[in-house]
Amino acid sequence: MYELQKVDKKFPGVHALKAVDFKVGRGEIVGLVGENGAGKSTLMKVIYGAYQPDGGTISIDGKTMRFQNPRQAMEHGIGMVFQEQSLIANLTVMENIFLGFEKQFVRFGVINWKAMAAAARHQLAKVKLDIEPSTITAKLSFAQRQLVELAKVLTLEERIDGDLVILLDEPTSVLAREEVQLLFKLVRDLTTRASFVFVSHRMEEVLELCDRVYVMKDGAVVDVVAQNQADIDAIQHKMVGREVDKRYYREHKQKPYDADKVLVSMQQASIERKYHDISFDLHPGEVLCLVGTEGSGREAILRTIVGLERPSAGRLAIKGQRLSRFSARQAVAKGVGYTPRERKIEGIVGGMTVFENMTLSQLHNYARFGVLRVGDEKRLAREWIERLAIKTPSEMKDCGGLSGGNQQKVVLAKWRSGGSDIMLLDHPTRGLDIGAKEDVYEMIRDMSDAGVGIVLVADTLEESIGLAHTIIVLKDGVAQKRFDCTPDSKPSLYDLVHHMI
Amino acid sequence: MNFERLNAHFPWITLVVLFLLVGLANPAFFNPVGLLALAGDVVPLFIMALGMTFAIYIGGIDLSVQQVANLVTVVATVFLVKLGIGVALVCILAGALVGALSGLVTTKFYVPSFVSTLAMGFVVLSGAKWLSNQRALHMNAEAREASFGWMFDTTLGLPNELIIAVLLLALCWFLQTRTTFGRALKAVGAGELAAVASGINVDRIKIMAFALCGALAAISGLMFSVKLSGGDANLANGFLLLAIVAVLVGGTPLTGGVGGVLNTAVGTLIVMVIRAAMVFLEVDATHQQMIFGIVLIVAIALTIDRSKLKIVK
What we know:
The structure holds 2 protein chains of 2 kinds.
Chain A: E1 2-11, E2 14-24, E3 29-34, H1 40-47, E4 55-60, E5 63-65, H2 70-75, E6 78-81, H3 93-97, E7 106-107, E8 110-111, H4 113-126, H5 142-154, H6 156-159, E9 164-169, H7 177-190, E10 194-199, H8 203-209, E11 212-217, E12 220-226, H9 232-240, E13 264-271, E14 275-282, E15 287-291, H10 298-305, E16 313-318, E17 321-322, H11 328-333, E18 336-339, H12 343-347, H13 354-359, E19 367-368, E20 371-372, H14 374-387, H15 404-417, E21 422-426, H16 434-449, E22 453-457, H17 461-467, E23 470-475, E24 478-484, H18 493-500
Parallel strand pairs in A: 3-10, 3-11, 6-9, 9-10, 15-22, 15-23, 18-21, 21-22
Antiparallel strand pairs in A: 1-2, 1-4, 4-5, 7-8, 11-12, 13-14, 13-16, 16-17, 19-20, 23-24
Helix pairs in contact in A: 15-16
Chain B: H1 3-7, H2 10-25, H3 32-41, H4 43-57, H5 65-83, H6 86-108, H7 113-132, E1 137-138, H8 141-148, E2 154-155, E3 158-159, H9 160-178, H10 180-197, H11 202-228, E4 230-231, H12 239-250, H13 261-280, H14 285-303
Antiparallel strand pairs in B: 1-4, 2-3
């Protein structure tokens, strides 16, 4: 019923969608996979009306449509469940569900809360969420909020005639496994009410849930596979054009580290309510993984080393020198490089060019008496663009316009080109596709070979195990267990989870 | 051609269109002698706007510049006889000091710059009133001629004050585009948290930006004082609004990070043309501020980067 035909979209310098055909049938769950920059998010934006295509047609039940904005798309039954949740935390659940559509409950200028609560209960029942509609949204768990968001989109059912198409953008990225299963069961049940488009980086989930899967590469749909004939390896092969083999984490390249020298030494350090009594030494060539659940103190430990947090007790020494004042400036000067989880906020400066971003941490290397040698800066940038295969038309391009993986490479190039030999990586592969992830793993091994000490907070446990020389498992800010790993003797997932929870 | 790419060219297109419109309505406007005189009149404002550019470029604002200029007119008039041309140095240092203090308050006590500079402006105003005894002072004519008479000479047919303006613009442009300071300013304006995580001393950069803004405001006040041959705690009133208008219509948005001093040069010329048009159309002097108030709102509405500013309060 919902159909895109030969949809084209161009941005300056990029052909983002190339004659894409896309179809969603009634009650169908359609998956959408592809590397970052393959055109998934552009396609989603075209579907929910945020972008207008340059060519091709959009039709619903054979009728050609043109949406000027998401609101118009919504009026034709297309709803979007956003990855970053759009609920307002200090409002109640029912206020959020009917935000902007309170009019139906208003009598003489006053809202009839009972009527709204009843209507909200009806919506919540659709997503099988048994909570009071008057609960403040902030008190809900992340998974519950996601369901409220879905319930909010499902109010479309009453508001419009015709069929619903609901877009789910990475809905599982922060859910625990059981929660994912519950969500999937719910989505399957809801196919009586709506069709779904499901976008995820987790291939197994896409195949588990979807009836058909669209595979995108470089702005084009390269394959459409039905669930029963899908094969993960084959799809991944089509997405990246190369095989994902067993040496994914480059374990064969792991070499012993230099245990005689110490780069970072943290002793009995604590920050109230974040972590407690943490001690470790980081050596040249070592990959030290901090493992734990969200809020176990991993991120705060990284931020302490880079000087963005101040420990309330304990000692921190970088290259033998004990720190008393904590600032990022001091840490960077001592060779610390920080690759933050919030790449677009703390990693790169959007609006500045690729070369400006690369030299930002080392301006003094490219200046005499405060005057920049811009030619040298550009030369450096071109060298690293080639070395890391960064996809950008030139070093003069706005860094904010690159895809996530390429932005991450710019951040890594910034630190490596400046000679940082203590790297703090917080979720360096978050939101990256397989190809870009592998590039990052390769770079981690290269840095390790070059004698760089790395503290890593990885995206998944497999990643931690695959990459680490040393694993420290944290729980509620306290170190539970330390594992020393060589390529042949790595702890199993179970060993880690056992200490995490 | 999409709207965003057009946006960057909007200021100078506006300038050319306005310039031609005013000239077509009143061909006498194109007279080079008259234009040079108009440009000369706008020099003190331009220099103040130049300084303001740095404050706005990092995403802040400096509301004390008008009061700094006021104070400087008084200081220059009172100390001219005693210090001669050395009074210029005293004025510039005073301006830089006031700016640096505002920057210090902003960065160390987390007071937003629009409040810290507003408050600092009142402190400075009190100083000006105290020093002038709340009277309009006149400059010693001989000392003025001896120390600053050269400002009104011409070099190769160009008024020296215009040459000063162009030199300051060149200096500021160099600072903005070719120095580590300028690069850091851009990073602070476009992505402050990433600048912090890259090890840039953001506090120092901010303090320097406000100090530079104060110093340029002082130069602006000094030139104005010499031009009018006197000092008064209210002499430069009316400059603040126009300086902000010049920066914003030039295309440096309140959110910072883009635009810069060349934009401000264009913005100042737009202000100049609008002013000339109002004189030609015989708009009452009391209404002119209203017009500029409206221009300011339109300029902000057109230039502000809404992707960066999710909430306005």
